[in-house]
Amino acid sequence: MKNIIFFGPPGAGKGTQAKIISKRLNLSHLSTGEILRERIKIKDKLGLELKDIISSGKLVSDEILNTIVKEKIENDCKSGFLLDGYPRTIEQAYFLNNLLNVASIKLNFIINLDISFEVLKERIVNRSIIENRDDDDISVIETRYNEYLNSTKKVSDYYKKKFPNIYFEIESNLQIEEITAKINKIIKKSWNSGNIYYISTWLRPQISCIHPHSFFLIIVMARISGVNIPTNKKVQVALTYIFGIGNKIAKDICDSASIDSTKRVSELNDDDLNKIRDLIDKNYSVEGDLRRKVSMDIKRLNDLGCYRGLRHRKKLPVRGQRTHTNARTRKGKAVAIAGKKKVTKG
């Protein structure tokens, strides 16, 4: 049984990916948005009230959503569930945690789909044309996005800190198939028919007690900022696997945490890992946050039409590099075109 939560701003593709993944894994897809829209179609007092709330871009009350989710999890999720659009507030998160603890249900994956606001706005406008949805216009988009930043984003960050080993971030500026492939890769890598178990550092001394002929495979992992860093490398080197952290910053983090940078990650205890996580969260912009900032900065340069913006638009080196010989470092490997003869010097 697999239990998954999807996070992300409205229009990030949670619903699309949730349908694909829930169908592939045979999970109950609990989309609060779909459930509420179905309730609106009944057109009773509650349905009309919900329509007014959703059309104005506001969030439905915790009491209504908690009741819906509780009934669904207890009655329709025997083979696992995929939550899409819930929890959206800290209070809902506490309610869900308590519900799962009482029922002895364990979360397996928490996936956050990250996207820049400009791309999000364009995507939702296109969706409003295709699906004819009342809650998809510019003013409502801005209201819903601000609601997301003020509530759901905080819930996502709460789960990131509480469950760092099962929290994954994915850039959803990509095509649907590319995002699906990334999610499938995460699930396939982290879950292998129940025979792969991830254990925390405090369990490592117990490895020697396992029978050598056991068919279980045990993998020790350290997860920081949504990235599985290699445990067989030195701490300073392993931290550079996180987007936005180079050798200098990695060394500074080790010094601030009073950790020997020449130690292997496998030698760190939970307190050391938590120190590193806290330092990165408080002092550095990495992974999804940094990628989003870079994306917005590039878009701003494009909109300004300045030299660097034009170079970005043409996918050429930006800061004055010699393009005749090193353009491939920016454009990637050359792709042969069928039927085109290679020019030879005579």
What features would you describe in this structure?
- 51% of the residues lie in helices and 12% in strands.
- By secondary structure, the protein is α/β, with parallel strands linked by helices.
- The chain has 3 domains: 2-190, P-loop containing nucleotide triphosphate hydrolases (Rossmann fold), CATH 3.40.50; 196-283, Helicase, Ruva Protein, domain 3 (Orthogonal Bundle); 287-319, no CATH class.
- A 5-stranded parallel sheet has the order 2-3-1-4-5, with helices on both faces.
- β8 and β9 form a beta hairpin.
- The chain is globular.
In short:
The chain is α/β, with parallel strands linked by helices. It contains 15 helices and nine strands.
Can you give keywords for this protein?
alpha/beta; globular; 15 helices; two-stranded parallel sheet; 346 residues; Helicase, Ruva Protein, domain 3; Rossmann fold; five-stranded parallel sheet
Strand content: 5-15%
In which order are the strands of the major sheet placed?
A: 2-3-1-4-5
CATH homologous superfamily annotation of the largest domain: P-loop containing nucleotide triphosphate hydrolases
What are the low-pLDDT stretches, counting only 5+ consecutive residues below 50?
192-220
Q: Tell me the series of helices and strands, N- to C-terminal.
A: EHEHHHEHEHHEHEEEEHHHHHHH
Fold blueprint:
Elements: E1 2-7, H1 14-25, E2 28-31, H2 32-41, H3 45-55, H4 62-76, E3 80-84, H5 90-102, E4 109-114, H6 117-131, H7 138-162, E5 167-171, H8 176-190, E6 196-199, E7 217-220, E8 222-224, E9 227-229, H9 235-239, H10 247-256, H11 270-283, H12 287-304, H13 307-313, H14 323-326, H15 328-331
Parallel strand pairs: 1-3, 1-4, 2-3, 4-5, 6-7
Antiparallel strand pairs: 8-9
Helix pairs in contact: 1-8, 2-3, 4-5, 6-7, 12-13
